[in-house]
Sequence to fold (364 residues):
Amino acid sequence: MGQPVQLSISSRIQQALEHELLAAMTKFSAVGAAGIIMDIHNGEVLAMTSLPQLNPNAAGQGSPEARFNRATLGVYELGSTFKPFTVAMAMDSGVVKSFGQMYNCPGALHVYGRTINDTHPFGRSCSVAEIMQESSNIGTAQIAQQLGAERQKAFLRKMGFLDPVAVELREKGRTLSPGSQWGPIETMTVGFGHGIAVTPLHLASGYATLFNGGIFRPATLLKVDRNHSAANGRRVFSEETSYKMRALLRLVVTEGTGGKADAPGYRIGGKTGSAEKYHNRSLLVTTFAGVFPMDEPRYVIVVMLDEPKATAETYGFRTAGWNVAPVVSKTVSRIAPMLGVRPDKNREPNMAEVLPYISQDPEH
Fold:
């Protein structure tokens, strides 16, 4: 009792994140946005914002939209940002033995009376590395099918995805999952981030778990000292899988859908996600979940735009690679120096883990 507490939030990092997110929200006429920056080793939340913002100094003037915390209370289908979890689960379960493992990736996959499509169809066999590079739903669905529902649920439970998010706030959203209907087709769609809705903070914690060596630690808004329970964690992924996934997500930024997230010298790795809203499939939630520096991961950044619109500058596209990926690039360029991360164009994860398994076909 009576002990002082110190928040983990950094006002400078918070300001940078809010500034870049608000600029993107305005530019793409989105109805809302959320962002989180987190230390992957101890779970400290360094910045967290939900837009539009509530001004606590203007009593009674906030709109319902501004009162709603999209970062911890809102649950969303976060789409392809889930795919790295599926690959990592399959690696740890012995389903995927290398990033060169091949899958049949037709123009469309007809399974269990449903059709699964890709934005960039391969129409050929493709490697696990290519599935991630081009964000293939068809390839990821087949990996999830091999993994199976029980193993998928067990991993998601260990990551805290099936429970309200762990953080010291009352505003905690409840995950929406297939529940008792979790059959083979649900396993496939959950594998690529559809049919399950979680908060952006769940996603940030998941990426922290995947890239800190495989240990889940709850997110916290308090400074972590050695006595804080956040220092203790539970193993979810093996260290080897955690290490190998670095190159795969760096590939997504250097050669794949996340190119606009790159910030020279800061070795960002991550994954785009664009998911249709359940109540209106013509509206999107776009997300980028990333980690930097990817050769020695220290921080996770998750940014989300709610219902962004296309612009002439994006050539009519409104997917994550066009609108939230640039927010990551600009934000990391601003905050990395504050966090003591130095730009170094000579350092990279071990890309030999993935590059041999990428087709030199100019179409892919």
Remarks:
- Residues 5 and 267 are 34 Å apart (CA to CA).
- The chain is about 30% helix and 20% strand.
